[in-house]
Structures are given as C-alpha cells and as structure tokens.
Amino acid sequence: RHTPTTSCQIKSPRSRSLRILVAVTTVLTYGTFDLFHVGHLRLLERLSERGDRLIVGVSTDNFNVSKGKQTVVPYADRAAIVGAIKGVDLVIPEENWEQKRQNIVEHDVDLFVMGDDWAGKFDDLQDLCTVEYLPRTVGVSTSSLKEILRVLDPAHIEEMQSALGVVSRLLDHYRDLT
Ligand code: C2G
Fold first, then answer.
1. Burial annotation 69-89 (CB, 10 A radius, 16+ → b, else e)
2. pLDDT per residue as tens digits for the range 50-62
3. Distances (CA, A) of 70 to 14, 57, 80, 137, 175
4. Total-model pTM
C-alpha cells in the first residue's frame, strides 16, 4: 500500500525556514518611586507602550542616602510596588550612578528613557542606545505629598498648638485693653 506522506514535512526547528528572528525592543528607566503616585504610573505606562520589555532600576536606600534623598518607603516595598505595575517586566536595584552603561549592555537595552526633569543628563549613553526624555506629569511629586503628610507629623502639630497658644494670649490681652 502506498504510504501517504504529509504535503509539508515538519522540518527540525533548527532549519532556516522555521528559525524566526523576533525583534524585542527593551526599554530601561530608573527612579526612586517613593510614595508611588500617578506621575510614576503615567511614566511607566508610557514606557511599557514604547517597547516589548520594560526594565526599571529602583534606587536602593543606600543609594538614596548618597543622592541626599530621604525616602519614606523602604527599597523592598518600593521595588515590590513597581514590580507589580502592569507592563513592568523586571526590577533591578539601582545602587550607584555608574551602573547604567553596564545595565544597558547586559540587558541589551534599545531605549533609555527618563522624565524630562533629567533632560540632557544621560545623553552620554547615546552611543549604546536611544536616549529619550518624556514630559513629567504636572501637579504631583513625592516632595509635595511629603509636605501634605508633614501636617500630620506630631512635632508639627505641637508647633501649631504653641503658636495658637500665643495668638489666644494676645487676643486675651487686647480684649482686656478694650
Ligand atoms: N516623574 C514624572 N512625573 C512626576 C514625577 C516623577 O514623570 N510628577 C518621573 C521622573 O521624571 C523620573 C521617574 O518618574 O523619570 C521617577 O521619579 P523619582 O522617583 O523622583 O526618581 P528620581 O529621584 O528622579 O531618580 O538615576 C536616576 C535616578 O534614580 C532618578
């Protein structure tokens, strides 16, 4: 009996015709992401649309001290929150200013992006990948959130109480004069 052969023999994956080169665009950014807010979210959302893989370097507590930044949320929590954002594929610790070049090479990064408060600061990386700066989200920042939270700080409340004490004594004094 004639054994029918399939019209197209499945070739081994190694065969040229099946080896498909898939171009993956890898995007990289860095940040502190303290008191995670909508400005951070909007940036990461825009970055995840710019490529197929998004890597985010989150600055460690030690690196923030060297940046002169006092963070509220510890690194482990900031990294967990960023890692849970849809579109973020990998979180790496940012421990110093110099690691960017090495990270770009080891992760085969195509596009390095930061908010435009950093405009021009990382242009030296242009020999390794495309460098872009995106507009920040206006009206929100970690420092403004900290200012709002400061009102809840007990030391600040004590300050307000003693100031109010002075005002009420002044009012009593002038009331006695009238
Ligand atoms: N960002 C934004 N809109 C805001 C606030 C922040 O787009 N309203 C962007 C910043 O431009 C930055 C990113 O969000 O690209 C993270 O901001 P920060 O957490 O403040 O990061 P930063 O302290 O600037 O650290 O090596 C680079 C540093 O790690 C960046």
1. eebebebeebbebbeebebbe
2. 999 999 999 999 9
3. 53, 18, 19, 22, 46
4. 0.81
Nearest CA to ligand 1 atom 21: 31
Residue 40 Cβ inside 6 Å of ligand 1? The answer reads yes
Rounded Cα gap, residues 155 and 150, in angstroms: 9
- Distance between CA atoms of 148 and 102, rounded to whole angstroms? 38
Residue to probe by mutation, ligand 1, list 27, 28, 29, 32, most atoms within 8 Å of CB: 32
Q: Ligand 1 atom closest to Cα of 33?
A: 19
**Cα 70 vs. chain centroid, distance in angstroms?**
16
DSSP per-residue string spanning 20-51: ------EEEEEE--TT--HHHHHHHHHHHHHS
* pLDDT at residue 6 in the model: 39
Strand runs labelled E in 2-129: 26-31, 53-59, 90-94, 111-115
Instruction: Answer yes or no: is pLDDT of 41 > 80.
Output: yes
